[in-house]
# Entry
Amino acid sequence: MYRLMLYYLGGLIIIAALFGALGILPYHPLWILFSTIFITTICWLTNAIFAFVFEAPSNEESVFITALILVLIISPIKNVQDLSYFSIAIWAPILAMASKYIFAIGKKHIFNPAAFAVAITALAINQTASWWVGTMALSPFVIIGGLLVTKKILRFDLVYSFILVALAGIIATHLSNPASLFMVIEKTLLASSTLFLAFVMLTEPYTTPPTSYLRIYYGALVGFIFVPSLHVGQIYSTPELALLVGNIFVYLVSPKTKLILTLKEKILIATDAYDFVFATNQKFKFKAGQYLEWTLAHHDPDNRGIRRYFTIASSPTEPEIKMGVKFYEPASTYKKTLINMQPGQTMVASQLSGDFTLPNDKNKKLVFIAGGIGVTPFRSMIKYLIDQKESRAITLFYSQKTLNDFAYVDDLDQAENQLGIKTVYTLTDKKLTPPTWIGETGFVDLKMIQKYVPDYMDRYYYISGPHSMVAAFEKTLKEIGILDNQIIIDYFPGFA
# Structure
């Protein structure tokens, strides 16, 4: 996801330079290049200094993303005597990096770094961001790239709520002049900061709420404050101020956890699948089924970067944090580094998120459908129920390619013996199915569910696994009449 954002922002700068050379934009390509190098260099140097002083782990991808955002919202230099450019182009990168280390609580920054930087420069040195990326010429590329990023990180709820509320507010302020509404809408969507703010800055993971409902509220709040005519006294709303107010809301309603995890052991749980068991540096509360972003810094990362999202495989009742990971060939540099970790080594985990959790109503009857390593959130939930001695009406359908691919079998057997939570195992590759196999074969389908769950129409379905499997089964359930609110899917950014 972070690499995709880097490519997106870098692509916008390259296109802007090309348009500058063609006279489509009023910026010389050499000055765009200079601004890019200048701001990126200051961001990198400042971050290196702060990381050294605070003895904190640094993520260069994040540094470069912030730098490129600043390049796209601070007007490029006009000439070497452009002192106004240098004043904001020096201070904004410094303030952006400071927001990650100094203006942070619990080693987690509160504000979007780029928004924080340009808001402070506007107040302190009267130098404002122009948001020059918000032009008609660049808007098609902002939209295309932004939709790809939003699809990757699955944040359409956030983006849509922001755009709809912002647009409604702006339209409401122009109702006295209906003739101008079309022009206002066109300018708002295609010639302003609206879409860049929505796709790039609003969706920054570290300042985004953990659940869908909170993301909708967050987007709506920022959208409401974004309306340019909104003001308190002489202070009028700007994109960066709207985002900062939203960041405060996120801080108040979201987990603030940033964990330094120390590896205790690696446990082989299935063919090429391991549980990584970590000790934490602090108490950590979460709900069974939620996930974290796991950052593992290493040399020469490939284009997938140094961060991944993995479900927490352990239960909230267990003292350690477990991460269940399946390894495939060819492995990414991230997974190569992960599999070579030794006890005592550390990694960083943060951004606790996810709605894929047990319903509060204990009387709801559930069907769990797991494919591959997608069984990890179910292991978390089931282990939690075992430890709490809490019985629920649950049937788990668990598919794998071969017999040796099944993980957490002991926990699932314990749940069946103690709580009556039945697991239906099915092997999807009939050629590799041993003759002594007494479970199901083939993919989980409606016929198999009907066999084991007679009241299948009344159940709530939790589906976790590869994206294609989840999407296909969700479609099947809807076709047979299962309602949307009965289907809960485990989608999260960068399933790996």
User: Anything to note?
Assistant: The first strand starts at residue 104 and ends at 105. The two ends are 12 Å apart (CA to CA). The CA atoms of residues 140 and 190 lie 8 Å apart. The longest helix spans residues 29-54.
